[in-house]
UniProtKB/TrEMBL annotation:
<feature type="compositionally biased region" description="Basic and acidic residues">
    <location>
        <begin position="26"/>
        <end position="35"/>
    </location>
</feature>
<dbReference type="InterPro" id="IPR015424">
    <property type="entry name" value="PyrdxlP-dep_Trfase"/>
</dbReference>
<feature type="compositionally biased region" description="Low complexity">
    <location>
        <begin position="13"/>
        <end position="23"/>
    </location>
</feature>
<comment type="similarity">
    <text>Belongs to the class-I pyridoxal-phosphate-dependent aminotransferase family.</text>
</comment>
<feature type="compositionally biased region" description="Gly residues">
    <location>
        <begin position="1"/>
        <end position="12"/>
    </location>
</feature>
<dbReference type="Pfam" id="PF00155">
    <property type="entry name" value="Aminotran_1_2"/>
</dbReference>
<dbReference type="InterPro" id="IPR015421">
    <property type="entry name" value="PyrdxlP-dep_Trfase_major"/>
</dbReference>
<feature type="domain" description="Aminotransferase class I/classII large">
    <location>
        <begin position="46"/>
        <end position="366"/>
    </location>
</feature>
<feature type="region of interest" description="Disordered">
    <location>
        <begin position="1"/>
        <end position="35"/>
    </location>
</feature>
<dbReference type="InterPro" id="IPR004839">
    <property type="entry name" value="Aminotransferase_I/II_large"/>
</dbReference>
<keyword id="KW-0032">Aminotransferase</keyword>
<keyword id="KW-0663">Pyridoxal phosphate</keyword>
<dbReference type="InterPro" id="IPR015422">
    <property type="entry name" value="PyrdxlP-dep_Trfase_small"/>
</dbReference>
<protein>
    <recommendedName>
        <fullName>Aminotransferase</fullName>
        <ecNumber>2.6.1.-</ecNumber>
    </recommendedName>
</protein>
<dbReference type="InterPro" id="IPR004838">
    <property type="entry name" value="NHTrfase_class1_PyrdxlP-BS"/>
</dbReference>
<keyword id="KW-0808">Transferase</keyword>
Length: 375
């Protein structure tokens, strides 16, 4: 693990005006996301680049959203959805902020909080750093290393960092950090942002910090778009102390979350939905084990899977990964390139977990793509 502070390596600061097409240092395009892999010809591809759970939203959720359309003439009223999210985490409503997806929460944090030294723990979802840079902040990075299994060492985070961002389980590494290790990052005067967008895909949500009130400066982000297939609706929420919630809420525009999204939020934290999500988490874990076992068969070809994987995706390193990815597209499969994540390069790919039949077809395609990449 190392701290990457900018030019020339070592610790330091980064000159960070607005993010450009290349994103940040090292040529990483911080604004490249999995949907770009299927944007133009996605209908012809089996999508393993985007981490939205397949087969969603379920019919009962579509019906709840459709029923909300009769109320579109009125301005959105988020009180019921906010209360439902608070009850789901056994928190007072003052600790809940509904957002237009987790991405909006990152923008609010970047714009509203007065911080001097923000640090982002990478490799992880790149939008937090992009939002901070766009807001004019100088951003330091702590890069987790493959040799360490991309595990967190809290001591590697600079002591004077007053904003720390980390994902758990982390996208794209699929590493689930112990909650105790993340909590060790908390300090008086520091905001600790934990992106738990994929935590509901972890059986039992073990290592979750959502609902904790004993960790100073803790801000937990949750997304409802991944598990429930609502990426096009944009709904998520933030859990924090009331003062932080109030500060971020002032930075939001009026009525930031639409009526259909509010209906979805209320539905997705119901007891029925939580039971369905828990069942899906166990199914994802079984399907992921099948995917990992199949990928291990390519070890003699130099393919390495980051393990243990705990999210609805796996990260792999293999020779000629860029060529393999192109051949996979020709064979009908879209996977996520890894070189846009700080700390990774073009030897890395992220693969979403799918059902066994889809995985079996993918594994056949991987075999063919590796062979073609040698030609």
């Amino acid at each position: 693990m190392r701290t990457d502070g900018g030019h020339g390596g070592g610790a330091g600061r980064v000159d960070a005006p607005a993010a450009d097409a290349a994103g940040a240092r090292g040529g990483h395009d911080l604004r490249h996301h999995g949907d770009a892999e299927v944007r133009d010809d996605g209908s012809a591809l089996t999508d393993l680049a985007v981490n939205v759970r397949a087969g969603t939203p379920p019919p009962w959720l579509r019906e709840r959203i459709a029923a909300s359309l009769t109320g579109l003439a009125a301005y959105p009223d988020g009180r019921a959805a906010r209360a439902a999210v608070a009850a789901r985490h056994m928190l007072p409503v003052e600790r809940v902020l509904l957002t237009a997806g987790a991405a909006e929460a990152f923008v609010l944090l970047a714009r509203a909080l007065k911080v001097r030294r923000p640090v982002v723990v990478h490799p992880q979802f790149t939008e937090p750093e992009a939002a901070l840079r766009d807001a004019g902040h100088c951003v330091d990075r702590v890069l987790l290393r493959a040799e360490d299994g991309f595990r967190l060492d809290p001591a590697a985070v600079p002591e004077d960092a007053d904003l720390v961002v980390i994902g758990n389980p982390t996208n794209p590494t699929s590493v689930l950090h112990p909650a105790a290790s993340i909590a060790r990052l908390a300090r008086p005067g520091r905001v600790l942002v934990v992106d738990e967008a994929f935590m509901d895909a972890v059986p039992g949500e073990r290592e979750a910090l959502a609902g904790r009130t004993d960790v100073p400066g803790l801000v937990v982000l949750r997304s409802l778009t991944k598990t429930w297939g609502l990426a096009g609706l944009r709904i998520g929420y933030l859990l924090a102390d009331p003062g932080t919630v109030e500060e971020l809420e002032r930075a939001q525009p009026l009525w930031p979350v639409s009526t259909p999204a509010l209906a979805a939020a209320e539905a997705c934290v119901s007891s029925q939905a939580l039971a369905e999500a828990a069942h899906a988490a166990h199914r994802i874990a079984a399907d992921r084990a099948h995917l990992v076992a199949g990928l291990r068969e390519f070890g003699s070809d130099g393919l390495h899977v980051v393990e243990p994987s705990e999210g609805p995706f796996v990260l792999v390193r293999l020779p000629r990964a860029a060529a393999v990815r192109r051949h996979l597209r020709d064979l009908g499969f879209a996977v996520r390139r890894g070189d846009t994540f700080p700390g990774l390069d073009e030897d890395w790919l992220r693969i979403a977990v799918r059902d066994r039949a889809t995985v079996n077809r993918l594994l056949q395609a991987v075999d063919r793509a590796i062979t073609l990449s040698r030609d």
